[in-house]
Amino acid sequence: MSLAAEAEAPRPRLRDALLLGVMHGPAELLPISSSGHTTLVPWLLGLEYSELSASDRKPIEIALHAGTAAALTISPPPSPITTARGARGAALAATTLLPTSLIGLAARKFVRTRLGTPMTVVIGLVAGSAALIAADRSSGSRQADSETLTDALLLGVAQSAALWPGVSRSTSMLCSARALGFEAGDAARIARAGLIPAAAAATTLETVEIARSGITTQEAAVIAVAAGSSFASTMLARPLVRVLESGGTLKPWAAWRLLVAAATILRIRSLGKDRPR
After folding, report:
1. Which is it for the CA torsion 21, 158, 86, 143, positive or negative?
2. Which of 48, 89, 145, 173 counts the most CB atoms within 10 A of its CB?
């Protein structure tokens, strides 16, 4: 690439990193897809972040997840967790994480090369909305402390659906828990408990990969802003989980996802094509 081309190439901006971080915390805690919003909102707003290459966006995305994972690990949301603790809890968490990790490693190349355009995210948003509407009709009564290793394994397989941008870990875990017969509030608690190990594992893997390739000083500043703002927004958004754990309807989150999908489709039609990855 020539010097002129390098000068004209879009670069990560602190403003964009700050906006993404502020948005990421609530989007991760609620079943609306943080990955979908990270991809679509900058594109809909015309931010330079949307013009970055996949390799340039990846460190920022990892920083966003790292900030959220750190916030949830240091200070879990202020509501009781009824999932098992101790050795049994660790076994359940590991069982859930295993299929998600294996499927994630196997599908990494496909996800990176084929997914992540606005239209593929729209598909994920719509699919997640349909799942939420179906889950909303569930009348399960199981409590979270009745979760078995078989449940954990099935939840882990279901969580891997979130590899498709727009689906979201929270949505896949919540809907799967409802399908397994868990009561609405406890299904939300199980979903929240599954966010931390999955986010931590993915963040660790990608961070090691990025560290090997190295980053510039400018990139380091953007990454720091993204991680810091994501951490702060997650801490501030923790009370939102009370809405889910109260067992209320899931229809508002399904409707929001469809609204974002509709705005994206209109944008695609106005441009005449989907944004190339």
Report:
1. positive
2. 173
Cα separation, 271 vs 159, in Å, equals: 33
Q: What angle do the packed helices 251-271 and 118-136 form, to 10 degrees?
A: 160
Which of 16, 20, 18, 30 is closest to 237 using CA atoms? 30
| 91's tokens | 């076994």
Q: Which tokens hold the place of 108? A: 């990494």
Amino acid in the structure at residue 194: G
**CB-CB neighbours of 181 under 10 Å:** 14
pTM: 0.84
Q: Could you tell me which of 268, 269, 272 has the C-alpha nearest to residue 118?
A: 268
The C-alpha atoms of residue 2 and residue 36 are separated, in whole angstroms, by: 33
Summarize pLDDT for 29-67 with one digit per residue, the tens.
899 999 899 999 999 998 888 888 877 888 888 889 889
Cβ-contact 58, 15 below 8 angstroms: no
The CA distance from 50 to 229, in Å, is: 19
